[in-house]
Amino acid sequence: MSDAARKFLVAVLMFLAAGAAIGWLYDRPGLGLMVAALLALLWQVRQLLSFDRALRTGNFDDFRQGEGIWEQIFSRFQYENEKAKRRKLGYRQLLREVRKSTNAMPDGAIILNLENEIIACNRAAKQLASIKRKKDRGQRVDNILRDPELTRLLRANDQSLTVEIVSPIDGGQWLNCRVVPYGLDQKLLLLRDVTERIRLSKMRRDFVANASHELRSPLTVIAGYLDSLAGGDDVPADWVKPVSQMQGQAKRMRHILGDMLELSRLESAGVASAEDAVDVSRLLEDARSAFEGHADVASIVIDAEPGALLRGSGAEIETVIVNLLSNAIRFTPTEGKITLAWRVAADGADLIVTDTGEGIDAEHVPRLTERFFRVDKGRARDQGGTGLGLAIVKHVLARYEAELVINSEPGEGSEFRCHFPSDRVVVAPS
Prior knowledge:
Helix content is 52%, strand content 19%. By secondary structure, the protein is α+β, with helices and mostly antiparallel strands. The strands form three sheets. Strands 2-1-5-4-3 form a five-stranded antiparallel sheet, sandwiched between helices. It has a five-stranded mixed sheet with strand order 7-9-10-12-11, covered by helices on one side. The chain has a three-stranded antiparallel sheet with strand order 6-8-13. The longest helix is centred in the middle third of the chain and has 37 residues, at 195-231. The radius of gyration is 40 Å and the shape is elongated.
């Protein structure tokens, strides 16, 4: 208990005692005590009303002097009030600094609540997506940036997921969007201008496609003359081997051009259609029949659920199977074993190609889907690989919103797992 409170209680008790003593002199001590208590109450009510008026008017002159309980209350109130003002000024200064920092960012930043309503945004968000900080506050961001990909991103609420949408300001401008957690029950939508990257990527795809088309014609002519030379009876003996080697390289070049054209098509294609149902187990059987029986091919075993179908294109799924299987055959010895599996679970389905080959070092696994990447460049080239098979597999799976997971240990073999989402899987009744 503070000294002021102790003095206040002592004063009240002494006043009540004085009232009781005066009443005792008149043989009415109870009445004297009651009158004293009433007077003390009226005094405190008066002080309370005065303090309330001072709070409303801001004039505390009646409470600035003295050491009574009300003066102590005023002192405490003044201290807390000034402390709150200083804290408020600090928060305002911090908010101004944060706003300056966010406005200096080249990327757009939009703060959203759980209902995807706009709370605040920086200057770049206005420049990139025409979001106005005051006018659009409280509006749903997907009502302003109308794009199915952005709606899917907001519903997924996955900070590792990004989408690219067309800017509402300029149809030739592209924005990369990402959602990250921000504060309590809030999230931050980040917008980045990726127009230059999209433009360069399109230029690269167009160049690859045009170059592949242009190279096909002269390569066809060269291959035709080589076939004529190889089939002729008047070819000198010392030319037989060079012509045969040139035929092999021309054939390999045709395969490379075909794969490059396929990659260009897949990169520019959207999400795969889900109208057709593909019998994956039948495609696995067809792939085994195509490779089994050839020289230096390991044993191929199939473990598939025949009643499980996949929504998509049979030709594209066949491309995935053939590329993964040919890759496994290339690096698995004849006495080894290759397993083709098709399994369905609650979260989707897995197409798995497992081999008992030589395996891959962990440092090379992240780069396997890069174009023309080879772990053993010389050996892979001699065996006829183009270095584009896994890149094609990756882009096909992207059309199905599927992912490729690679597990491999040197000397223990490799596993290539293609995981398809559940909405792509159809389980036929037995």
